[in-house]
Amino acid sequence: MNTSALILMVITQVTVTLVTFYFFLKVLRTPHQKDDEDTPGTEDHAS
Predict the structure, then answer these.
(1) CA gap 9, 1 in Å, rounded
(2) Rounded CA separation 44/47 (Å)
């Protein structure tokens, strides 16, 4: 593997890792939303 390919591979891996880490932290820091009674799609269909 030549030097330019190695540099490109390392830059790509670091970029993907940083973006993944950024969104993972964003998900963890987002406050939890309470479920409302009138939220669509959460009806309880008891038979």
Answers:
(1) 10
(2) 9
pTM of the full predicted structure?
A: 0.62
Angle at 25 between CA 38 and CA 21, to 5 degrees: 130
Each residue of 1-22: pLDDT tens digit?
Answer: 899 999 999 999 999 999 999 9
Secondary structure, 3-state, 1-47: CCHHHHHHHHHHHHHHHHHHHHHHHHHHHCCCCCCCCCCCCCCCCCC
In the numeric block, which tokens belong to residue 16?
A: 């993907």
